[in-house]
Write a structure and sequence with these properties.
This protein starts with 17 loop residues before the first strand and ends with a helix. Helix content is about 40%, strand content about 20%.
Length: about 675
């Protein structure tokens, strides 16, 4: 199965065009940016206000929830109010559980989104064995409930999104396939069968999950399955997103990892970034990710042929099995290191500043440093810097990046040599580095520096130099445009050459003039996408003035990619008109009480309709059940119902305590 034209160069997936009112999705159209309102759909003026603000911010399609017939009917009033204001933006009705509301909404909006997991099925989390006949009967029941909507959408010329969510699959899907990417895809294809049976093709798909790895795998698998159904033909467009991503930097990082990785695969025709914030704040993040993808697709970079796939199975996650090179690779967790550029002129002052900065992030630790050495005086100052750091209880391994001739002289004083492999560097120089490293018992990181198409040949040169010098302790990194594809090309070439166990270091260099928001997204994609592919034994951040901030960001990326957990994970929905409390304020309050519980997953969901399912793999859940009341969950089990909102945070903490998952925060322990 193939999900992309090439995993080794950015190529946009070929899709048909689906029109949503005046906005076209897919084909050669730009990646469309959309968002969703958080207002009560019965509040006509308030919803129109928010849609108007979204449109002014650059949102091209706006989604509005229609949880019942009343809200679906009021979409007509919202549309009329927007027309009165001169706001022309396609509207999408968001439907869960209510086929009747979907039919009403279709009369008033340009597109209807349905969730195949709950459009025709009641969610009971029931465990049972289905015979083939029983399974087929339930599929047919769902099809017959769905068919009237398909026919009406076709008659009206409206579009449809079949939007599968990882946490709200139908019981029959869960029992046959589990809550897996395959289950998500099968759920969507059952509904596509009905559409195609009715000769209706104005369909867009989404495969959302709060786990970026799962989202990536599901979209890839869907692309491959659709290609199998119609080989060589343009497929259905994809709406790409990571659901319940949360807020702040964590929400942006998790969204960028999932959405950005898929766009690097060429998958994605419209995107929505789901943040637990004012929806207007989602728009610039989505727009930045779209710009990045379109720029990469426009490059037309030739795809290298590394001679092997980069992974055994791109539809599941498994970290590459690598040899241990010191603390790098093997069974070690993905390391976090910082590249700090030139050796400072005043080592003692630099050590003091570095210690202060790293002390600001006590919950995570930098695990190594790298400095650029250009001459002999640099070597002397680097030794002085190491001593000054040790005097401040920062006994960190210090790698040295140097050109090949100088690296030979630096070998004895480095924890690792970082040496470029590029067009202007002779093979004999690389072999000399390898011999010096063996003599000094120091590992080497060969930094492949060149164009994407050059990466396989550069990897060959690094392997040849290592063999020539008798060097076994070495790793590979890449310094190339299109970092995600370059990392894959390096991993694939190592496999092709029988060196699949060589560790790979992922490096991100911040340009000094880079926009901070754009760089945050670039960082998340360039590191997070390979990590989700199983590639990466260390991440190194380069060019950041604040060492503590850089260290913190690296760990946030590792957590967003589900590679290393160092803090509480909050799975919070972005709010919508179904939400029964102020989600942003409530999430902030719960975070203030529980953010020290490392490794715990807490879901904060706005409503009872979809919350219990969509929070998927959370350990504990806080879900709105009615005006002023909350249900508390342990996993998928509701253990306390209709808790007054004023008591709910305290009751959640007590629930965590009863299940043995609570520890006192550091400040409380100190008191």
């Amino acid at each position: 199965m193939h999900y992309t034209a090439s995993p080794f160069a950015p190529r946009r997936r070929k899709t048909r065009v689906v029109r949503v009112g005046d906005v076209a999705i897919g084909g050669n159209q730009p990646v469309r940016v959309q968002s969703m309102t958080t207002t009560d759909t019965l509040d006509t003026a308030g919803t129109a206000d928010q849609v108007e603000r979204l449109a002014a911010a650059g949102c091209e399609i706006a989604r509005i929830t229609a949880p019942s017939r009343k809200e679906a009917e009021n979409l007509a009033a919202i549309r009329a109010e927007l027309f009165r204001r001169g706001v022309r933006i396609p509207l999408v009705a968001d439907i869960h559980y209510t086929p009747g509301a979907a039919l009403i909404a279709a009369e008033h909006v340009e597109k209807v989104r349905i969730n195949p997991g709950n459009y025709a099925d009641k969610k009971k989390f029931e465990v049972r064995d289905y015979s083939d006949a029983e399974y087929a009967e339930e599929v047919e029941h769902a099809a017959e409930r769905f068919r009237p909507l398909v026919r009406r959408l076709r008659e009206l010329g409206r579009a449809l999104r079949i939007g599968t969510n990882h946490g709200s699959l139908a019981d029959r899907i869960l029992n046959r396939y589990g809550d897996t990417p395959r289950g998500m895809v099968e759920s969507a294809l059952e509904f596509l069968d009905v559409c195609e049976d009715e000769n209706y093709t104005d369909v867009v798909f989404s495969m959302k999950a709060s786990n970026a790895q799962v989202a990536i795998q599901a979209y890839r698998l869907l692309a491959a399955r659709l290609e199998e159904r119609n080989p060589g033909e343009p497929g259905y467009p994809f709406h790409v997103g990571v659901t319940e991503a949360g807020d702040g930097e964590d929400g942006r990082i998790k969204s960028a990892i999932g959405i950005g990785a898929l766009l690097e695969d060429g998958l994605g025709d419209t995107i929505r970034v789901s943040l637990t914030e004012d929806p207007v704040k989602e728009v610039p993040v989505a727009a930045a990710l779209a710009r990045r993808a379109e720029a990469h697709w426009a490059r037309g970079a030739p795809a290298p042929d590394p001679g092997a796939p980069f992974a055994d199975d791109p539809y599941s996650h498994r970290r590459r099995t690598t040899r241990a090179v010191g603390a790098l690779g093997g069974a070690n967790p993905v390391r976090v290191e910082l590249a700090l550029g030139a050796v400072p002129a005043d080592p003692r002052a630099a050590a003091a500043a570095l210690a202060r900065s790293l002390a600001e992030v006590r919950e995570v630790a930098c695990e190594g440093l790298c400095f650029d050495v250009h001459d002999v005086p640099d070597q002397a100052r680097l030794a002085e810097l190491g001593a000054a750091l040790r005097a401040r209880a920062l006994d960190l391994p210090i790698a040295v990046r140097a050109e090949s001739r100088l690296a030979v002289a630096c070998a004895a004083g480095a924890s690792r040599l970082v040496v470029a492999v590029g067009a202007l560097i002779e093979d004999a120089e690389l072999a000399a580095v390898a011999r010096a490293a063996v003599s000094a018992r120091v590992p080497v990181e060969w930094e492949l520096r060149g164009a994407l198409a050059d990466i396989p040949a550069l990897a060959d040169r690094a392997l040849a130099a290592s063999r020539s010098g008798g060097l076994d302790d070495f790793a590979i990194s890449v310094d190339a445009p299109l970092a995600v594809h370059a990392a894959r090309a390096a991993a694939a070439r190592l496999r092709a050459r029988g060196a699949a166990d060589v560790p790979i270091v992922l490096r991100h260099r911040r340009h000094p003039e880079a926009d901070e928001t754009d760089d945050l997204l670039d960082l998340a994609v360039d590191l997070g996408a390979p990590l989700c592919d199983g590639i990466g034994d260390a991440v190194v951040l380069d060019g950041f003035a604040d060492a503590g901030r850089a260290t913190d960001l690296a760990y946030r990326v590792l957590q967003g990619a589900r590679l290393r957990t160092t803090r509480t994970e909050f799975i919070s929905c972005p709010s919508c008109g179904r939400t029964l409390f102020d989600l942003e304020e409530t999430t902030a309050r719960i975070k203030a009480r529980t953010s020290h519980l490392v490794g715990l997953k807490i879901a904060v969901m706005g409503c009872i309709v979809n919350g219990p399912g969509e929070m998927a793999d959370a350990d504990f859940g806080y879900v709105g059940s009615g005006p002023g009341t909350v249900n508390l969950f342990v996993g998928h089990e509701c253990v306390e119902r209709h808790v007054p909102a004023a008591e709910a945070t305290d009751r959640l903490v007590a629930l965590i305590q009863r299940h043995g998952r609570w520890v006192d925060p550091p400040s409380a322990s100190a008191d």
